[in-house]
Amino acid sequence: MPKLFGTFGVRGIANEELTPKLALELGLALATHLGGSGKVAIGRDNRTSGVMLEQALIAGLTAGGCEVLKLGLTPTPALSLATRNFSCKAGVMITASHNPPEYNGIKFWDSEGAGFQRERETEIERIFAKGWKMVDWREIGRVDEVDPIAPYIEAILKRFTRFKRGLKVVVDCANAVGNLVTPRVLTELGCKVVSMNSQLDGTFPGRKLEPVPENLGELAKTVVSCGADLGVAHDGDADRTLIVDERGEVLSGDRVFAHVALHYLRGRAHPRIITTVATSSVLDDVASKLGGKVVRTRVGEPDLVEEFRRGGGDICGEENGGMIFPDWLLCRDGTMTAVQFIEALDETGIKTSELNLTLPVYSQIKRRVNCPNELKQKVLKNLVKRFSKHELDRTDGLRVTFEDGWLLLRPSGTEPVFRCFAEATTAERAKELAALGMKELKAAVRGR
Ligand code: MG
To answer: Does 97 participate in catalysis according to the annotation?
Structure first.
């Protein structure tokens, strides 16, 4: 059986790995999986290969008997909302999220607007291998066009009252679909918005799409030079957000998550915060402030949603700036994340950098070691032995807890790489832990 799905969806370079033929066949496989009937919403980001793949998917889905709601250009969270609100059996998002412009991807969504769980992806792979069904010509599905953007903006605005401070916000959506939503929402809420990289361009000339500090230099400079209160950056499909403070310092994804969680969960009794093993201890500080609890899962959006469905929860988030607000959508939402953060800031009357300092500061170091995929499990076993005297968490890779920090050694799900994350209360100790992690990791890879 071919393995089509990676960490989240099918990804590849357009017309090399991800061809119109593959999109057509995935459309047919999804239609077969859905029993050859029902409505499916399709949206896409603004990559140059988007329309081509959209047309192939629509051909496959309609040939397989499904009705298609064509949403056109949309951020992923608006696709999730439309899938649920238009009572679709499934949704399809054509996006490669933070990957470079030559890539594209196809992600499936369930009727509740959450990404397909792994069992359903495996089922699609099985149908793909065994063969799909085309329906009789009388049952070929119809295609309707629907705007996902206006209802999404309206729904999000309904949840907030206009902010008081008139904060100045620089919004950098990287020439991608976040531009359709975030600048407008923030303006409607009373922010003074300065947009950069705001024209849609599928070659993404403005900056690399991943919202990480090294790609946000221009945003940081712009925030400072125009005297803004903060900056907001999304990835290519606007399901992730990072924040830049008024001095041009980038807040990491887990700090954004911590501030948003503290604000969003205020007043809730014993909130359950779902996050991954890779997220900062600052979430534990937030949970203790709120009288709540942190539950840590494997890394990845499907794992967060699975845990939410299993044990309930109040918010889910990752260290990469992706957050899920379950009473809003079961999908990471970058716009909602930005609005929550700005609402928190608006209520305080202080600067972004000052707000950031209201939570304990930790030092983090992230490193990596090359490791062939077939060796990863052996290396992991070896590492467990090496750290056997410590408190270990084996949820995903190996998380070693120390009195003043932690170390995560985890095989990447997408690359032939082993990652090493260290966090501690001081920069020196974080360096020490990272050095220890790298030393043992390299030895484990060599020792095999
Ligand atoms: Mg994304």
So the answer is: yes
Taking phi over 0 as left and psi of -120 to 50 as alpha, with beta for the rest, 56 belongs to alpha
Per the structure block, which two tokens stand in for 318? 């990752």
Name the 3-class secondary structure at 87: coil
Q: Are 210 and 98 in contact (CB under 8 A)?
A: yes
CATH of the domain spanning 10-149: 3.40.120.10
* C-alpha–C-alpha distance, residues 3 and 126, integer Å: 9
CA of 181 to the centre of ligand 1 (A): 15
Residue range(s) in the chain whose domain bears CATH number 3.30.310.50: 363-446
What is the SS3 assignment for 201-265?
CCCCCCCCCCCCHHHCHHHHHHHHHCCCCEEEEECCCCCEEEEEECCCCEECHHHHHHHHHHHHC
The CATH number of the structural domain formed by 363-446 is 3.30.310.50
Provide the whole-model pTM. 0.95
User: In the numeric block, which tokens belong to residue 335?
Assistant: 């716009």
DSSP state of 141: P
User: Of 97, 198, 252, 281, which residue is the catalytic one?
Assistant: 97
CA 184 to each of CA 60, 105, 157, 169, 193: distance values in angstroms, whole numbers, following the listed order: 35, 27, 10, 12, 9
CA 98 to ligand 1 center in whole angstroms: 6
Q: Which pLDDT tens digit goes with each residue over 76-104?
A: 999 999 999 999 999 999 999 999 999 99
- Distance (angstroms) between ligand 1 centre and the Cα of 322 equals 8
Quickly name the fold that domain 161-356 has: Alpha-D-Glucose-1,6-Bisphosphate; Chain A, domain 3 (3.40.120)
**The two structure tokens encoding residue 41:** 């919403």
For the record, the structure tokens of 292 come out as 């709540």
384, amino acid identity = V
Structure tokens at 177: 């679909």
Are the C-beta atoms of 109 and 93 separated by less than 8 Å? yes
294, two tokens: 């942190």
Q: How far is the CA of 402 from the centre of ligand 1 (A)?
A: 32
Say how many Å lie between the CA of residue 338 and the centre of ligand 1: 14
Closest CA to 185 of 215, 210, 154, 213: 154
- What is the enclosing helix (H) or strand (E) of 366? strand 363-370
Query: Which residue spans of the chain are classified as CATH 3.40.120.10?
Result: 10-149, 161-356
Query: What count of other Cβ atoms lies within 10 Å of the Cβ of residue 64?
Result: 26
- DSSP string computed for 292-332: -EEEEE-SSHHHHHHHHHHH--SEEE-TTSBEE-TTT-SS-
pLDDT, tens digit (0-9, with 9 covering 90-100), for 283-326? 999 999 999 999 999 998 999 999 999 999 999 999 999 999 99
